[in-house]
């Protein structure tokens, strides 16, 4: 019996990928790996280098340095370059453009160059059944809705059994209600096919919904990588918090490992005396209490001291209400969200506390 258990190499691995345009680094030393059946999301604002990374993996853009491996085999470095069509990579982009003059069946069969007629037909039928579109097999793209076209595009991309699927904002052309369903369905099919998926998006909700792992990108670099829960709850910096949600910021100076604020003291272990810090927290972690004869709630260890604020504006957002307060201590605005309907009148005096365990100090 074999005494050694070897772990297979990742389905896709990129090492130290770099690309500059006109001397400006656009992809700046990016490395990551994706296993079969895993969805990794490159998430970041417009222009941070997501699409360029994807294009290098697809083979339509050359890197300045770095390597790309599929199943442990070198696909591309600065000397060797496997042509795009031999990389066994499927592509899905926002403007997925089915071929308008080809039938649905011929669109799906497009990448099956080497297969026999019978094999092609079998694979086309299998995939169209999988995306629940067999009834359109002899139809043409213009007879399909946007969502149906998207599902044909998925079937077309999957037909040659790619090892890796690269998706660049593939759902952004669809309207909201349709999008959730198609996203989930696409994800199920990709998982069943055991495809490694690299999805590019600038929408945190999409990344949280789809990804097993998020790689947060900024200015050509990956600033944080991990499971969505970890990236959301343990952000590396203020911008990483702000990328996922609205934020509030308190400024404070540290003395004796404590940051003094109108909401009481915050622990700042290891921060040198005299350092100015930002205490960052999300609106859902602000607690609101009514004013009782000019008093707020008593200080507690978990919520600190209450600070007095006056309601400026309250808006109903569907699942929650967003209330903006002008704070007494310096007139700055803090935002709080409250589940369901909570619409106090502008001018109402209230007391705010902040959940200590949900704050980030940078
Ligand atoms: N061929 C090119 N020549 C010059 N600059 C380029 C080229 N391709 C991309 N860029 C620049 O590189 C930067 C990153 O572009 P890229 O498309 O990778 O970003 P992105 O994160 O995908 O953004 P978006 O979500 O808007 O597509 C941008 O500033 C872009 O203008």
TrEMBL record:
PROSITE patterns (UniProt xref): ABC_TRANSPORTER_1, ABC_TRANSPORTER_2
GO biological process: quaternary ammonium group transport
Top-level taxon of origin: Bacteria
Classification via Pfam families: ABC_tran (PF00005), TOBE_2 (PF08402)
GO MF: ABC-type ferric iron transporter activity; ATP binding; ATP hydrolysis activity
Keyword annotations of the record: ATP-binding, Cell membrane, Ion transport, Iron, Iron transport, Membrane, Nucleotide-binding, Transport
Cellular-component GO terms for this entry: ATP-binding cassette (ABC) transporter complex
Record-annotated ABC transporter domain positions: 12-244
InterPro entries: AAA+_ATPase, ABC_SmlMolc_Importer, ABC_transporter-like_ATP-bd, ABC_transporter-like_CS, ABC_transpr_FbpC, Mo/tungstate-bd_C_term_dom, P-loop_NTPase, Transp-assoc_OB_typ2
Protein name per its UniProtKB record: Spermidine/putrescine ABC transporter ATPase
């Amino acid at each position: 019996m074999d005494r050694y258990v070897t772990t297979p190499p990742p389905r896709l691995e990129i090492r130290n990928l770099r690309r500059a345009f006109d001397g400006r680094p656009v992809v700046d030393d990016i490395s990551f790996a994706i296993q079969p059946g895993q969805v990794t999301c490159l998430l970041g604002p417009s222009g941070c280098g997501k699409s360029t990374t994807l294009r290098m993996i697809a083979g339509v853009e050359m890197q300045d340095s770095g390597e790309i491996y599929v199943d442990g085999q070198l696909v591309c470095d600065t000397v060797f370059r496997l042509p795009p069509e031999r990389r066994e990579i499927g592509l899905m982009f926002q403007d997925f453009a089915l071929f308008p003059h080809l039938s649905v069946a011929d669109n799906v069969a497009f990448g099956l160059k080497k297969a026999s007629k019978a094999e092609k037909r079998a694979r086309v039928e299998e995939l169209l059944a999988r995306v629940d579109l067999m009834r359109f097999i002899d139809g043409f793209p213009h007879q399909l809705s946007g969502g149906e076209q998207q599902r044909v595009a998925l079937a077309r991309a999957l037909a040659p059994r790619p090892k890796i699927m690269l998706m660049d904002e593939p759902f952004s052309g669809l309207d909201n209600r349709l999008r959730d369903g198609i996203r989930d369905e696409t994800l199920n099919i990709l998982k069943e096919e055991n495809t490694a998926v690299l999805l590019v998006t600038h929408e945190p909700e999409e990344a949280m919904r789809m990804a097993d792992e998020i790689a947060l990108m900024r200015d050509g670099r990956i600033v944080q990588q991990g499971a969505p829960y970890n990236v959301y709850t343990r952000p590396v910096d203020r911008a990483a918090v702000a990328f996922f949600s609205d934020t509030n910021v308190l400024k404070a100076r540290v003395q004796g490992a404590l940051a003094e604020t109108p909401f009481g003291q915050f622990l700042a272990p290891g921060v040198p005396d005299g350092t100015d810090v930002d205490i960052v927290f999300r609106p859902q972690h602000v607690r609101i209490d009514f004013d009782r004869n000019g008093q707020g709630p008593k200080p507690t260890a978990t919520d600190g001291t209450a600070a007095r604020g006056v309601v400026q504006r309250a808006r109903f957002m569907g699942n929650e209400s967003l209330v903006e307060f002008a704070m007494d201590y310096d007139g700055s605005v803090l935002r709080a969200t409250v589940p369901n309907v909570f619409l106090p009148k502008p001018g109402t005096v209230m007391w705010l506390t902040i959940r200590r365990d949900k704050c980030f100090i940078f």
